[in-house]
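PT: before anyone asks, these are the final sequences, not the draft ones from last week. 929 residues across everything. Please model them as a single complex and drop the result in this thread when it's through.
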Amino acid sequence: MHLIIAEKNIAARRIAEILAGKAKVSAKKDGSANLYEFGDTKVIGLRGHVVEVDFEPGYDNWRSATHPPRTLIDAGIIKRPTEKKIVSILQKVARKADLVTIATDYDTEGELIGKEAYELVRAVNNTVEVDRARFSAITPDEIHRAFAETKPLDFHLAAAGETRQIVDLVWGASLTRFISIAAKRGGGNILSVGRVQSPTLAMIVDREKEIEAFVPETYWMVRLDSEKDHLPIEARHTHGRFKEKEEAQAAVAGSLPPLTVNEVIEGEKADRAPTPLDTTSLIVAAGRLGYSAANAMRVAEDLYMNGYISYPRTDNTVYPPSLNLNGIVSDLSKGVFAKDGKWVAENMRPKPTRGKKETTDHPPIHPAGYGSPEKIGEDAWKLYEFIVRRFFATLSPDAKWKTLKVNMSAGSEPYTATGGRLVEPGYRTVYQYSDAKERILPKLTAGDTLPINAVHLDEKETQPPARYTQSRLIQKMEELGLGTKSTRHEVIQKLIGRKYVEGNPLRPTLVGRAVTDTLEQYADTITRPEMTRALEDHMNMIKVREKRSDDVLTESREMLDRVFDQLEGNESLIGEDIMEMTIEESIVGPCPICGHSLRIRRMGSSQFIGCMHYPDCTFNMSLPPGTWGGAVRTKEVCPTHSLNHIRLVRKGARPWDLGCPLCSHIASNKEAIAMIPGCDDELIRSLHEHHLYAITELTSRTPLELSGLIGIPTQKAEEIILGAGDVINKLRLRTEMKKFIRDTITPRKGRSPAKIVKALIEEDVSDITALGKADPGLLRKAGLSETEALEVTGSAKEASDARILKDAGIPAISLKKYREAGITSPEAFLNRHPAGISLASGVSIETVIKHVSLICEQYNRPPPGKITKGAFLKGQKELTDLPGVGEATLLKLADAGVYNRETLLAVRDDIPGISPDVISKMKKKAEIA
DNA sequence: GCAAGGTC
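LR: through. Structure below.
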């Protein structure tokens, strides 16, 4: 059996179809692995790399004392399958193969993916013959040729790729760990470092520094308006920028009529049709259409998977001869493109345009099939249409312009005007993505004299360099050799994800700056594109056998060791530097109380805004817990409080804008403060003026302080403080009731806990005690069934009773004993005789009396009389000595207040549960005794 | 929990 291994599913399928010829190909999909079969041949599609390099076991713990980051430099490297399913199917099939052909992409990474497959094959079948097919397009001709002349795998080329993998892992992981640990960052907040991402970040940071250092210079431009045959002419002074205003003014003053035409130079300008698309130019063009880099690639991937365009990851800008250009044009010449397709077919240039880069792995990006706007969808259509039109344009003739340069003078001053007219639109007929503004001038000849309608003196300023847009950055990365066509947009996403950069165009955050500054100072190598260049040189040398992979790795590890010499000696300094530089990111603005800075602070999952002058200033504002999203400041600043707005951000959720934290702090306390009796609008205004926003800030002050602060009489201040305390208590009880409702009621449609609580509060039922006493009808109105309503009020009563008893001061251990005896409500304590309670619960009589007294106090009732333990025990003995008195009787007697001979004699005969006869007999015996 | 490179 012949096994063919392709880099990806789609390649496997097409190779199978081509090689099968007329034979039928059967496709099998097993999870993530695709297998195509015909005759005695199987073709499997990988998914790029199916294994990855990692450190040998033992290096997982970042904070390990025995394996600090530096030890990663010399840690053993292993390969681990990342696509286990594909690996297992590959190996299963490979066992039975007697020829294996590696047919991965024709580039370095493809050779490495091939070698990885080779090793997986060898692990289960060490005798099978393995060869390699190299093709630069998946077309019948190319594929048949490549499979007719297979060659051995190029292990040196693969080794070059492998060396890159290891260098990247070792540098990236060790530096990432080091710098994250130094800055005390963990979890989702690590500070990453890498050969590609760090220089890319540095470019953005450097550009920002240039912008900050830029000093604008004022300059002046002189132009004038004229006309001929009612057509306007705008002429510029040939001096261009005037640095001195006086000179410019002199030029204006010297510009006297008439305007004389001295010379008219006619010319022609060729306007070259654009070259075939590679990934970078696709991303750049998509940027102009409004797609972010990552979005453009996602859409392109989608178009590719659905057969509308060719493979979107390519560096090639030259159509391979095998590509059937005419066929594609005719396929596209329908629907929306009918007219343009026909035009292209009729006006096709002799040879398509070609760009500077020509590679062997994939053709330039081109349409692969016709799609209508309806089928493709709005989101992707703009990009697809662009790809089609760009393809058309590369086959269309150049456009031609007629240009006109007119030299003129006004008085002593020289002027010039330029015009341009599109005489042959060429490719622009089907491709209108680049600006082609015509500037039409009237017909002018030397010697013409024209009027001067106006002379303008424009004051302008030199501009700082522009920030990078995503597409500009990708272009720049390509120029510098950073990343690949497939990874550049991901690198940018990574920088955004790490919160190193933000916005569009891209700006560095403080974290991004701090990391770049630190790396530039201590580990400069990793921040420079030269590292990539050097690595590529070394990879080339490995490829041509001038160097061995091991030597390159040893050299690289020695370099990294020297970097760590620098880093380790300065670890605490580096950490402090980064933390100091990044603290500003959490600063929100001035504290309204003391003027120092307010900071977002996090403690576990809770977060709040507090004053940096704590503990001298205790001003703070609470924020929703971190589960709602981490609080970050936004650029927007509250005009009233000069505080940055706050936003809660959570992965996978839409950000939640809280606005100005102080505004929302005030708003959320407003209702509570208004609940204080005697607190009118006037007083609230006065409180706010003195920066008292939260109700808790009132209760934490003495009446004297408050009256001094806001200038009200002490007596009034005292009332307010007491009132505030009551409100806090009330709100606490309300919250407690909300929680109780939420815990007891199963939410169902139309009766959310929030809704029920609202209805209850409207009826003035705002704590658990009130709920216990509430009319179940209220709850029925809120949507509960009768049984549910009774259950809620019943358990509310229980909960409230338990709370009252606990608040009265009865310790938990006694409460437990009472509860076991069924004594759960305050009423039970008030209505039952202490003797009965004591006997039923086993709590000693003296303690029971103490507890009952506590409750009586709550209810303004007189406390029960004292009974000592001794007297009680003696009394019990007196009673049990009487014939026929057992424990059951003793309890009944106790509940009636009978606990000794004396009380027995005083009692009437109607004790519940004991017949009057028995009682009078007992009394008689007691008298005798 | 780290990189960069494939692919989805």
